[in-house]
Amino acid sequence: MKKAFTCAALLTMLAGCGGSDSHDASTKSALARLKTSSSVAGAYETEVQQLYIAYFGRPADPTGLANFSAALQADNAPTDITGLAQAYGSNPALKSLIDSFGTSAESQALYGSGSTSAFVTAVFQNVLGRAPADAGLNFWTNAITSGSLTQADAALAIMAGAKTNSSAQGQIDAALVANRVSVAQQFTAAVPTDIYAGPAAASGARAMLAAVNSTTDVSNYQGTIGITIANFTNEAIFESTALHGGEATLVFNFPFGGGTLVSGTNYIYSNSTGVLPASPINGPQVETPAFTSLDAGLTFTSPGPTRILQNGRIMLLAATAQRRITYVNNAIHVDYLAADGQTALTASVFSNYAIAGLTGLMDNSPEQLRAAVPIPTWIKANNFSANAQWQPGSAYIVKQGYRAIDTVIVNDCNNTASTVYTTSTTPTPCKASATLDNFFPVSLLSSSSGYPYETDFAGDGTISTVQGVRMWVSNAPMPLTESAIQAYRVYFELGGNIYLGLLEKSGAPYNYGQADGSVVNYLLTLNQAAIASVKAGIITGFVNAGSGAGSGATVGTVDLFGI
Hints:
Layout: H1 25-37, H2 39-42, H3 45-56, H4 62-74, H5 81-87, H6 92-102, H7 105-111, H8 116-128, H9 134-146, H10 151-164, H11 168-190, H12 199-210, H13 222-242, E1 247-253, E2 267-273, E3 285-287, E4 290-293, E5 306-310, E6 313-317, E7 323-327, E8 332-337, E9 344-357, H14 367-372, H15 375-380, E10 395-403, E11 407-411, E12 442-445, E13 452-456, E14 461-466, E15 469-474, E16 487-494, E17 497-504, E18 512-513, E19 519-520, E20 523-527, H16 528-537
Antiparallel strand pairs: 1-2, 1-20, 2-4, 3-7, 5-6, 5-11, 7-8, 8-9, 9-10, 10-20, 11-17, 12-13, 14-15, 15-16, 16-17, 18-19
């Protein structure tokens, strides 16, 4: 007896069953051998693509393509879509296999649960890219209503009908189906299995295929396919952490040369963000950052708020303020929200995601990771276990970002030796009861030496209106040692006083200081398994100073999204 497949039984075969997929290395290896050894199964690949298009509106994933080709071969199915539709009623195993497409959660979500006529219209729009003519709508609606056709096999029957229709419209429909199958085949051949999974990837592939029509030049579609796959990379890697505890950076201060970690002086904590309840593919999602000590014996002071000038007002952006995440143009867009939970005080965009797994001894971590998380240095200083291992599932992520809107960050003005530093919406001004016209030159003083480290003259910048106030903006950007992002010194008038700040212009890329002193144009984060590994490796309590110097200076708080 041939095996009948259900949606539950197909989870290892069908990425579209519920819109998600997960395969281990042994499964992938077996599938690779299967595709290599079975030329007969390869004859079914066009047919499988047609099934995926008919029921899910998207190309097959590589694993699903291989498995369903093999399943059709095992059921001795016809190798063309018309024959498959005809065999549906006489081959129980084949019927069960096709029904698993039609009754899957992904197909049900695509076609909805409305009236029969609405269902038929949705199938036509998805399969043929058009609404049905009245005669066709009535024909297929009556077939389903009478019981001669089920909704589960309707999409297959409609696609098969389009392949055999010799009318002018039928020829257009057949050309559209052929073009979409061709693009689907190119896509499946190009996409890595591990990133083509989940609702975001399915939706992106569906949108790509929906743009293909009967006149599309499919021989020149590789560029569009490449952009679509790049989108998967960003969204898939983002969701690999966002839907599983979030991603984190480490903020730490270990004693120079090693030795016992002292609470109040030394600390190591994670700055976790991106913990989302659901994928942003269906709309914005909101998350709240969290700071967690990785050593219960060490306390730390959470970062204070950032002051941002917006429309003539100085507002506070808390380090734990909510953030609204959306997918925009092949990237992850982040709005940093004010206390009202709605107003975006600033925004960032992140893309070019990459992920690398971590296994074995933590002392042997990749050089790129060690620059940000200096585990070998901690080991030499006796603050970290030399035998610590990365826990299963550990990985680090790198990504690049840029500021999405012009942002003015307001600081206390340090142009006197007795600067008062504040955290409120009333920062220390550079000068009271003054205007920019009679303000320059001005020197900013070092808090440690009291000597000037920056002097600005009126001619070094220009005066214009920014964020609703009169502002002097420097002509040249600040050195990257002064700001992680390309920023411009500003002085602005507000309430009769002159205040100090930095202007980060829209489009400015982020740069990040590393623990080894280098500056890179990407941000490195850890997933939660990697954070747990670091936590497990920390040596608490009394230790002797080690043979190598520890981290001699505090690594400044690195916010995952650039603020």
